[in-house]
Every structure is written in structure tokens, then in C-alpha cells.
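Honest question from a wet-lab person: if I give you the sequences of every part of a complex, can you actually get the arrangement of the whole thing, not just the pieces? Trying it with mine:
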Amino acid sequence: MAASSPISPLAPKNFPRMPALAGARLASAASGMRYKGRDDLLLMAFDKGTSVAGMFTTSRAPSAPVDWCRKHLVNGQGHARALLVNAGNANAFTGIKGDKALRDCAAAAAKQIGCTRGQVMIGSTGVIGLLLDSAKITGLLPALAAKLNPDAWRAGAEAIRTTDTFAKGATATAKIDGVEVRINGMAKGSGMIAPDMATMLAYVATDATLPPDVLHALLRKSVQNSFNMISVDSDTSTSDTVMLFATGKAMHGAVLRAGDPRLRDFRQKLDAVMGDLARQVVCDGEGARKFISVRVTGAASGRAAKKIAMSIANSPLVKTAIAGEDANWGRIVMAVGKAGEAASRDALSVRIGGLPVARKGMADPAYSESKVTAHMKGQEIEIEVDVGVGQAAATVWTCDLTHGYIDINANYRS
Amino acid sequence: MAASSPISPLAPKNFPRMPALAGARLASAASGMRYKGRDDLLLMAFDKGTSVAGMFTTSRAPSAPVDWCRKHLVNGQGHARALLVNAGNANAFTGIKGDKALRDCAAAAAKQIGCTRGQVMIGSTGVIGLLLDSAKITGLLPALAAKLNPDAWRAGAEAIRTTDTFAKGATATAKIDGVEVRINGMAKGSGMIAPDMATMLAYVATDATLPPDVLHALLRKSVQNSFNMISVDSDTSTSDTVMLFATGKAMHGAVLRAGDPRLRDFRQKLDAVMGDLARQVVCDGEGARKFISVRVTGAASGRAAKKIAMSIANSPLVKTAIAGEDANWGRIVMAVGKAGEAASRDALSVRIGGLPVARKGMADPAYSESKVTAHMKGQEIEIEVDVGVGQAAATVWTCDLTHGYIDINANYRS
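Yes, you can. This is the full assembly:
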């Protein structure tokens, strides 16, 4: 299914040229577990001394890999030597058998890499509730380990896809203390994308030398404005995972806290990579034909601004109207109203594509339906709402809701 | 659009035979405001002494009619002589002009009925943000008043539809103190259906003799288990309204409190009418092909049970899987997990159509995909989840998410 779906019209033109990153090697393979004719297994190996930070789904029914990573990262931070990801089976809601399958995989990977099982991070994505046949993975690990090389980022990003129609990668170069460091990231995700660990897998690595606690603080901050600001369908996966690895190969001075001013450029570039990956996930939203940004201003708090923006972004009626290129802005007002946060109906203003639509509780006299409709026909839709009660703002990203979403999800397992 | 859509396959076979109800008369007409070739205007007249109770949308951007009814019903209760409802224009987010249009309509109706403006309840449903041309309504009021008659319930229910594919009515006879009383109700609604005043208009009348405070208490209780337990698309309208009128024509003894044991039969019959109307709204969910009941047991509280049940009922992934007749129960687990309420993953059990699916955190050894798939092919889908942490339960009703929903909502205004 995934492999044969046409590529999203919102996909970036090219996969970025991902340079090698000192201390990290990758390899992928095809287990045949679910997908035919494509890789579905990724092994990454990290040199000794690699720090890692992770953030995970808020689901109360997390997958076995999420449980595993949480257990081996104290407060979301620690050290790692390997990452093993499979696509097609989420190993979620699989009970003790799923846990056993995971431990078999971790042990097999640890043996190949020469580390402890707890240093192997695991990610699984795909169907929930299906038992994972670990033999199909463990049998491939010797060959994977033999293939590890620093230039396989694109193949890795291809391997972790499920219904994704394109591989998602992003890269940047930052300076710490005058020393160049790289940041490479990949992500997968196109359904079950909802806020707060936006339901996907994302793995970002850097050769910077950063201790686990600093890495974790940087990751948390960056997730707030990237993966936590996207939604495709308001559903939250059991498997959401974002991990940041630092191999420590770059020869800059010691950094002991996330607020260190020498990290300014690094923080910006990390945010750029994370934001890029998050927006690529939206661009691959199942059935997506339009990329939508929703900016809410004038809210009572940042939390309220985000909640209102998400209420708009998750409204099926707003999303179908946009799919139909219909400037039905009344539904935006509806979505503001249902968010349950302070908003002044009579001070509310709405702009679409920068054009005036509504203000002071009614249609703006300057509203031009033909101009707004012209904007609606484009691929990038901009909604701005000022709710008129405060100073806080938030921007979230989503996509439209189309027949493609129904097609993909009504027949996912068949 | 609405008029030409095929009737929902989930529609009841017939509109019920609605008997006359002493003290209430109805008339409908076609304003031509939005729909062609059908009535879109309902006037109801109530005899003097009619009590009324109302409950309204939780939206922070309520429509002008919601503001109006709230203003004239102190604490949601009072007396009324008329109800005027138009379909096609919600008179929402229309500012002071919308308010003026509403007052013109109320004044014209009051003149015809011979009451004060504040005794005229108003309902409007349709497009948000469009100015209401009150002259198209006020001009018809003399003719409507002349046509008022006690046997026009079905025509009334037809007139208040928007995208509804069938008119929704329900009726019951109850005894209070040995005296027979009638309960007649009608509802409209098929999109923007979400919990807590499930986004629709519903008007129920009885000839029982009940003071406004008793009526309000009865309504509140009955809404909790009917209209507040349904969801089509999680969107909340600006116009949600449920009103209960009591004309006071029945000659039973005085009832001074909702808990009066003489109201036992009446309460049951009211619940039946309200529940019937609420389920009919779900059966007319935009694009609905399957009626879904979700029962959650073993929750920590009633509120938690409802929140988990709604998380399942509102999940686009669950709803599309059901549309595809796919027994993808992993998505049910996902939806339990994302609800944010206490649930024990490892004690969770799931049944579909009464058949065992999952228990103790994994697929049930007795699970038969072919049996469950056979159930999925039916029109009524039953999902039961025990979350394994407490004793509380809740049942909610929803429908599947199909191409029809996209078709209807991508082109609603065209």
C-alpha cells in the first residue's frame, strides 16, 4: 500500500544531500515482514560515548519499544550504541510476547554492535496488536552490521516509512565555539499525527559533544515548537518517539548546560532541522493535498493559543472545507468557539492568506470571496485568527482532509 | 444539496405517527433563502401558560439565536408562546446586524401570536457568518400564523433540516398521576455533532403540567444520556439547542419537583424520546453507513468512561477502519491510550459485536478475525472496552467516517 501510493503533492522536490556524521553509521534491509520489495529495517550504530535523549508518546497504551526506551533512558536521557527500527509492525498491545520479541531483537543487535542490550534503542511502527516475529529481524542483524556505513541516511529514512509516500530527511551545519558540527535527522509519520509527541518516529543525530542532560533539555525545547505543533488527524500513536543522539566527535569546548550562549547557533539549527522534519510529516499527512498553517494571536496564554489553533487544525469541517477549496470561514469561527478557551466573539478577527475575512464579530466589509478563494486554490493555506483577549500566540501546522485519507485508512491492513 | 442527497441507509423506516399535542400548533413555509422546493421555516405556537427549559451550545462563539434564548430564559427556564426556526442560515457570527435581523423576526412573530418578543424562542441553523435577510422571514409570518395547526409535526421536522437526509421525530405517551400525557419531539443535525449539546436543534413538547424549574431539571438529566452522548465529527456548532416545552394541558395533580416519584414513567418516556432523537441524529451523520455504539466499562469515573468512549468514537482512524469494515482493533487501543484517562494497558479487554478481541494487554487467544469481520459488515457495530481500573461505565453513539462526509463537507456552500 504505502509503497504504491502516489507521492504527496506537498513532498519536497528532493531528499536533501545528507553528509556523513562522524560516529554514526547506518544500514537497512528488507525483512519481508509486511512490505514487499523495499527495506523495512534500519540499524544505526553509534561510537562509544554517544549521548542520547528521547521523548515519547503520551499514550496510556504505549508500545513495547516505548516502554523499553523509557526504561533504559533515565529521565529521558542516557547513552546509546545502537538504534534498531522496523516498519510495518508497531509491536504495540502485544503483551509479554511482544516484550519477549523486543528483547530478542535488542540482544541480537547488542551482540553485533558489541554493547549491552540497554544501549540498543528500539523503534517499531505499523499495525497495532500484531505479534512481532523477531526471527525475521534477528536473522538479518549480522548482515546489517556488516553493511553499516556513514552514508546511508537516505536509505535509512526510506526504510522506516509505513504509509509515508516519501522519505523525510533534514540536515544542517552549526558552529559551537567556532567548531563546525553537523545535525542530521530523519522522520516517518503520516497518520495518527496529533500534538504532544506528534505520533511519529524521528531520529536526529549530531557529532556535537553534549552530555545527556544538555541534550535532553535541547530536545524538549525544540519539540515544543516542532513536533508538538503539528496534527494530521488528532489521533495519537502508541509509538511516538523523538530521539536526539550526540556522538561527541566534534572537538569544541565542554558544554555543561543547554542555556550556554555558545549553543545559540546549534539551538537554531536544531530547531530548523526539527521544524523541517515536522512540516514534512504534515506534508505527508494521509491524503494531504494542502499544507495549512494556523496562527492564533491575542490569546490569554500560550497554552490557550495552542489549544485554539489545534481546535481549528483538527476540525474535520475546517479541513474538508479546505480540501474543497471553499472559503467557508464560518467553520473557523466554530472551531474557535468549541476550543473552550477565552475568546471574544465580538473582537475576533480572521484572515486567510493575509486577506481580511472577519473582524469585530462579523464578516469584514473588505472581505473579497473571490480573492480568498484564489488563495484557497493554492497548495499552502494560511489561517490567522486574533481572539482578542490577550497577547499570547501559537502557530500549528496541519493538512486538509480528503478522500485520500479515507482510502488509505479504510483499507490500511488489507 | 441536502434535499438531493440520498437518504441515509441508517434512517428509520418511517417517520413516526405523531399525534396532536394539546396546546401546541405548527406551520411551515418555504422562504427560498437557501433551499429550493422545500420548506425551511417552522413556526410553533404554544398556548398561554406554557413552560420552557433550554440547554445550549458550549461554544464561545454562540449564534444570535442562542444569545437570544439564553437572555429570555433565566437559568435556562421560563415561559414561551412561540418558536421560530429557520434552516440554511445559522445567523452566527453576524454581529449587530444579525442581532437586528433576529429582533425583527421575533417582533413579527410576537405580533402574529399576540405575545411579547421575549416569549418567542428562536433557532437558526445553516451557514455561519452569512447575514440573515429577515424580510424573507417576516413577510411569511402572517401566512404561517394563519396555517398553524396541531397536526403538522412531520412537516415541521422536515422544515428544520439542513444536510439532514431524513426528518427526525419521536413520540411517546406517559402517565403522570394516572393521567395520560404526550411527549412529541423533533430534531435536526448531521454534521458538527459533538458531545455536550451535540450540535443540533431539538425541540420536545409535552402537554404535561410542569413548572419551568422542574422542566429544566428533567431536561438536564435527560440530555446527559442522550444528546451529550453522541458525536459525528467532534465539531461543536455555534447553534446547539435543545428545548423542552410543557403546555400544561394535562389535568394531573401539581408536580413541584423533578424527583417526584409520580414522574417516574414520564422521565423514562422523556429519556426514550430524547435518546431516540439523539440516535437518529447519529444515523444521519454526514456520509454515515454504519451506526456505532461504544461502551466503556471499568473506568475510574463516569467522566473518565465518557472521555475514553468519546476518544474512540471521535478517532478518525477508528471511524475509517469501520467504514472499511476492517477489524483493526489496534486503533481502538490507540484511542483508549490517547484519551488521557486512567486505563490499564495490561488489563484492557476489547470486544467487538460481543466477540472476544483482546484481553490482558494483547490479542485474545479466542479472537476470530473472520467472525469479527462478519460483524463489521453489518450496519450496527458494537464496541465494548473494559479499561480495568474501576467500576464506572458510559455508552456513546457515533457513525463511521466515509467518502460521503468529505463529499458533503468539501462542497457544503456550493
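Two things worth pointing out. The longest strand of chain B covers residues 179-188. Residues 291-410 of chain B form a domain with the Ubiquitin-like (UB roll) fold (CATH 3.10.20.340).
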